[in-house]
Design goal:
- Chain A: It comes from Haloferax marisrubri.
- The structure holds 2 protein chains of 2 kinds.
- Chain A is an alpha/beta fold.
- Chain A has a single domain, classed as 3-Layer(aba) Sandwich (Rossmann fold), CATH 3.40.50.
- In chain A, 27% of the residues lie in helices and 27% in strands.
- In chain A, the strands form 3 sheets. A 9-stranded mixed sheet of chain A has the order 11-10-9-12-8-1-6-7-13, sandwiched between helices.
- In chain A, strand 10 and strand 11 form a beta hairpin.
- The radius of gyration of chain A is 21 Å and the shape is globular.
- Chain B is built from 17 helices and 22 strands.
- In chain B, strand 19 and strand 20 form a beta hairpin.
- In chain B, the strands form 5 sheets. In chain B, strands 5, 6, 7, 8, 14, 15, 16, 17 and 18 form a 9-stranded mixed sheet that branches. A 6-stranded mixed sheet of chain B has the order 9-4-3-13-20-19.
- Helices cover 35% and strands 25% of the residues of chain B.
- Classes of the chains: A alpha/beta, B alpha+beta.
Chain lengths: 259, 457
């Protein structure tokens, strides 16, 4: 482990949450006008991958699954400092839910001899949080979910994560290889350097892997996705009970009574 | 620069490029700002074979840009095919209206049939967020490298010459032979680098604008429009901008209406706030019905350079040129409100001059001076010179133009068309009296007519 760790960071292109609206009549997301951007928690994943590389040496490889325009998020990762990128792209991936998606990412991570795989805790367009544990499950690797910070112990071949748990935090030591899901806002992502950003957007090209390259062409796509959406509904806000009080004393009395 | 990708086990491995190349002097020019002037300059240079880096502070071109709403396209049409451009409506009607603060309106409307024919007098409403992004894409397709979310913070110098820019990014300095300053009206980089002086208060206007969403049919019906036809309404008088010197506007987009006011920043500093001014304008009985029921989907504010030819800075420096709003290229003659066409024209001439200078391996002010000369001989500077008198003259005559005249017109109209049992002749006389009195008698009226004769000349 003296030459550092193979760090893989999984990133996803999502519609900009600031521009996504919900059609009040149909209850569906209107994503058509929203520009595609890097999933917000993935900025924290990229930052922790880069910080990990700073600490233990090695390389950071960004991977994403999607059509060719999705390589824009690989550019964003490389601009921030990732060393390279892999685009998993294939019509066969179309319609994949979290099960085949995490399988594809798991196979790619294995192919890259990953010591550590880092993801954002969830994507802002589907919010399942299932993909990072899915990657760990498919490969039989350790996992650190809802991680707020990382403490590498390269001499022991161990990565210690501080996890957000109810009422506090816990520190968990995981043997490599390990999959980490970083909490949104866990760190302060570094801005891309100007020259690195120019490089990422003009010269950098990710390699492209297909489902067949990963030997999973019969295990991905809509047909291999167990999720079925039964229906959708919008919830109307509940009318709150309101009481008006005239003074702080009255408010105190009222609260004391209610509590 | 790129390593050979290695293949092991049949699968292509990713290139790992930890080393970041250095792009100092890899580009012939750096353009500061991807608005209309910057993009026109970048596009022109790329077409002439130059490598151009265009830096934009917003997440996409157009996100930081504000204008009233009408884009004039004669030069853009020369540069790109605008058939696919995201245009909203062509201007089929111009309407000039004087509003008093008592609710009176006197308007003149024009709908020449020729405007209905392609290319519609090269006048279209556009939404900048969509148009600028499209225009910048034409530049990128021509080979320009566009980098967004990057704010230029200053200029690099070698001796006196500009040799590059600094940005807000780490490792954020980049050298290039020429820098094009297309940073807009609030030109902090140019001012910080002493390429232009901080403008005087009376040479800057403030504009605030809101966009209201309405059905296409509602807009068509309210403004009497068909198909892609659109309307540009301009407003003057106390009912438009209160105590200030300036005007209001209402422009139709496809499914929204842009409403705004522009007035001297001096008036805002004296206490007339932009939001109260816009609110009063939108509440005026002549304006409110146009936007009734519309949902406010956007509000924005910006400064507008209105110093005219007098306030134009030096356009060329050793290693740098100034274009568009940053160069003060906005025309407000009362009747004509133009800026986008001048921005594109200046970007085009600057781009041409830079390409010619770099072909001679030069980037000094003297070699770039063709830009100043060409712009000087174009409609841009000619129009600015021609109307240079306008701002000062209306400011000096504000009381008459903005308060007395709108009321006198309304009183005269009321008299002239009055239905009672007095003769038309008497009504005409009374109407005339209102106007002559407001203008300061026959002598005053003649003096004012003389003073403003150039408005239509």
């Amino acid at each position: 482990m003296n030459d550092g760790w193979n760090i893989v960071v999984c990133v996803k292109q999502v519609p900009d949450a600031d521009d996504v609206t919900i059609d009040p009549d149909t209850g569906t997301l209107n994503r058509s006008d929203a520009p595609a951007v890097l999933n917000k928690p993935d900025h924290n994943a990229v930052e922790s991958a880069l910080a990990l590389r700073d600490a233990v040496g090695g390389t950071v490889t960004a991977i994403t699954m999607g059509p060719p325009p999705a390589s824009a998020v690989l550019q964003a990762a490389v601009a921030a400092g990732a060393d390279g990128g892999v685009l998993l792209t294939d019509r066969a991936f179309g319609g994949s839910d979290t099960w085949p998606t995490s399988l594809a990412l798991a196979r790619a991570a294995e192919e890259l001899d990953a010591d550590v795989v880092i993801c954002g805790e969830e994507s802002t367009d589907s919010s399942t949080g299932q993909v990072p544990p899915g990657i760990a499950a498919h490969n039989g690797w350790a996992q650190l979910t809802y991680t707020e910070s990382l403490d590498p112990r390269p001499d022991e071949g161990v990565l210690v994560g501080t996890r957000d748990v109810e009422g506090g935090y816990e520190r968990v030591a995981a043997a490599l290889p390990v999959v980490v899901a970083m909490v949104f806002g866990a760190n302060d992502p570094r801005p891309a350097g100007l020259h690195r950003k120019i490089f990422a957007e003009t010269e950098f090209e990710p390699v492209q892997w297909t489902a067949a390259d990963l030997d999973i062409e019969d295990r991905v796509g809509l047909a291999n996705s167990p999720t079925k959406v039964g229906g959708m509904d919008t919830a109307s806000p509940v009318e709150r009970e309101r009481t008006r009080v005239d003074s702080v004393e009255a408010l105190y009395d009222h609260l004391a009574e209610v509590l | 620069m790129s390593h050979e990708a290695t293949t092991a086990g049949g699968l292509q491995r990713p290139d790992l490029q930890t080393e970041t190349p250095n792009y100092d002097d890899a580009f012939d020019a750096v353009v500061v700002g991807a608005g209309l002037a910057g993009t026109a300059a970048a596009l022109t240079m790329a077409r002439d074979g130059l490598d151009v880096l265009m830096l934009e502070r917003g997440p996409a071109p157009g996100t930081k840009n504000v204008f009233g709403g009408v884009l004039y396209t004669p030069t853009i049409r020369e540069l790109v095919d605008i058939d696919d451009a995201p245009l909203e409506r062509y201007i089929a009607e111009k309407r000039f209206s004087i509003l008093s603060s008592d609710g009176d309106e006197t308007a003149i409307s024009m709908r020449p049939g020729a405007w209905r024919d392609d290319p519609h007098n090269d006048s279209y409403t556009v939404l900048r967020r969509r148009f600028d992004e499209w225009f910048a894409k034409q530049a990128v397709d021509a080979g320009v490298t566009l980098v967004t979310e990057t704010t230029v913070t200053g200029l690099l110098r070698d001796g006196g010459a500009v040799v590059g820019v600094t940005t807000d990014r780490p490792d954020g300095e980049i050298h290039a032979p020429v820098v094009v300053l297309a940073e807009g009206a609030n030109s902090l980089v140019s001012e910080g680098a002493d390429l232009k002086e901080r403008p005087e208060r009376d040479a800057v206007a403030v504009s605030v604008k809101e966009v209201f969403k309405l059905d296409r049919d509602t807009i068509d019906d309210r403004f009497r429009l068909d198909g892609d036809a659109g309307a540009a309404y301009q407003y003057f008088g106390e009912g438009a901008v209160g105590e200030a010197v300036g005007g209001g506007f209402v422009y139709t987009n496809k499914r929204s209406v842009s409403v705004g006011v522009v007035y001297r920043v001096e008036d805002a500093a004296a206490g007339q706030t932009p939001e109260a001014t816009l609110d009063a304008f939108e509440s005026h009985p002549a304006v409110a019905p146009l936007i009734r029921g519309g949902r406010r989907i956007e509000y924005s504010a910006h400064v507008v350079p209105e110093g005219g030819a007098r306030a134009m800075p030096d356009l060329v420096h050793d290693g740098a040129v100034v274009v568009g709003d940053a160069a003060g290229l906005v025309l407000n003659s009362g009747v004509h409100l133009e800026g986008t066409n001048m921005a594109v024209e200046s970007g085009y001439h600057a781009g041409k001059a830079i390409a010619a200078a770099l072909a001679d391996d030069r980037s000094d002010a003297e070699a770039l001076a063709a830009y100043t000369r060409d712009l000087d001989q174009s409609f841009v500077v000619e129009n600015l010179r021609h109307y240079d008198w306008f701002q000062r003259t209306i400011a000096a005559d504000r009381q008459f133009l903005f308060e007395d005249l709108p009321r006198a017109l309304a009183s005269a109209e009321t008299e002239y068309f009055k239905m009672d049992r007095t003769s038309k002749d008497e009504h005409t006389g009374a109407a005339r009296d209102h106007l002559v009195a407001a203008a300061g008698g026959w002598f005053g009226a003649a003096k004012r007519a003389w003073r403003f004769r150039r408005m239509l000349s």
